[in-house]
Amino acid sequence: MNDYKKLTNEVGAPVPDNENAITAGPRGPVVMQDVWLMEKMAHFNREVIPERRMHAKGWGAYGQFTVTHDISKYTKAKVLQPGAKTDVFIRFSTVAGERGAADCERDIRGVATKFYTEEGNWDLVGNNTPTFFIRDVHNFSDLNRAVKRDPRTGRRSAQNNWDFWTLLPECFHQITVVMSDRGIPASFRNMHFFGEHTFSFYNEKNERVWCKFHLKTQQGIKNLSNEEADTINAMDREYHGADLYSAIEKGDFPKWTMYVQIMTEEQAKNHYENPFDITKIWRHAEYPLMEVGELELNRNPENYFAEVEQAAFSPAHVVPGIGFSPDRFLQGRLFAYGDAQRYRLGVNHNLIPVNQAKTEVNEYHRDGAMRVDGNYGGAPAYTPNSMGAWTAQPDVMEPPLDLEGAMYRYDPKDDPTDDCFRAGGDLWRVMTEDKKEILIQNTADNIASVTPNIKYRHAAHCYLADPEYGKRFAKAAGLDVDKMIKLSQLSNAELIQATLSSDM
Ligand code: HEM
Q: Could you list the residue range(s) of the whole structural domain that residue 274 is in?
């Protein structure tokens, strides 16, 4: 342990003076020979690394995941076998705000979990909402540009945000969730989180099922009103980080229960909508939640930069027994994260301790910037080789997947089963009256500065989800209800055409 007594330079030599530069005479200029001063300034100038393009503001903690129920008939993943206990690291984040943004903004929250399993790292990189705004990777960078800063003013723009959201009707369910009371959680401890996508499991017999992950808070759901959040943000921009840190320091460890929904390959073929569309939910009545285990957070990081800022999660990191699905949005994410991290942290970012697997890592990757682990010494660096060094393990090959159809750019809106408003309408209909009122008021406040054409576009979508939802939003936003009903009878393309001009 460092005794904090002796200051040294970066290669361990003692530093004689850390306050007074070496000058030529008592009132003269600084000399180049003050190499300690040069080192200090040069290091400081390079301390900032790029922030994550989205999810830039975040907080992390360590803990364990324990399996309490038996789902071994679906998956052979060791991390999901009854009784298994696995160390985890979680990073919670907001999405749109930059690294210095306030915690209590209306936004979705990211929840990225790294399971350090005995078969390698499994990263479940999810959010606190069961679905996502959009479903094609092409729309992802645009979504972020629309919710982040306007290129001309440099300010966030409700106009850009609502314009983009309402031009893509598949955003509707997620907009309803974000504008609801759940749009500003009271703390990270008081929210559920979800894998969102459809993933797959395969068992010892190599039989595949599709699955979705749900983690439900044991602390209960608690949210903030706009007014409460405004007051908190004015006083403490790190409110959620402080809450998580102090709960763990006090020994009040937050816990979540993991559940999965399972759909067989046969059920998926006959499902009434695309089960791989991330904007759709699987209704719980049809695909019940099955309990899996408990996740507890119980240790704070020792150093924010080393462990939280440098943490790197990727949906591409799965272990045998857990796989991907044809979800086209998930497929895009499989490339995006590692690519971002090679830029943000460097090609060897998985050597950073928080990202390192706790199992043996035997790969043929070599060299690259910041290779700090000995680079496998004299071990063979190519494969195949005659030295008997690390060979692939066909026994963990996942089962083949039948696909059908010609290669093409399919628009999901052309699929006759596609209904962008069913999930939002279902959600509206299960809300209690006070929650409905909060949703209507939050939406009206959030959209207030936006031009009427975009408000009408959203109102027509609300009406299509549920006529009561549409009428109440139209009234709260000061819109003409009859006009909204007429707009709701148009096709999506006609509605967009009719609401393009802000003069309407
Ligand atoms: C095609 C769609 C998506 C793309 C291209 C994408 C891309 C990215 C990228 C590049 C990062 C920054 C990674 C880094 O610098 O370490 C990121 C962060 C993140 N994304 Fe996505 N994302 C997508 C969709 C989603 C979805 C659907 C979810 C939730 C289910 C999600 C959850 C997260 C979370 C939680 C983080 C922060 C991870 C952390 O704490 O380090 N993203 N995303």
A: 58-128+185-355
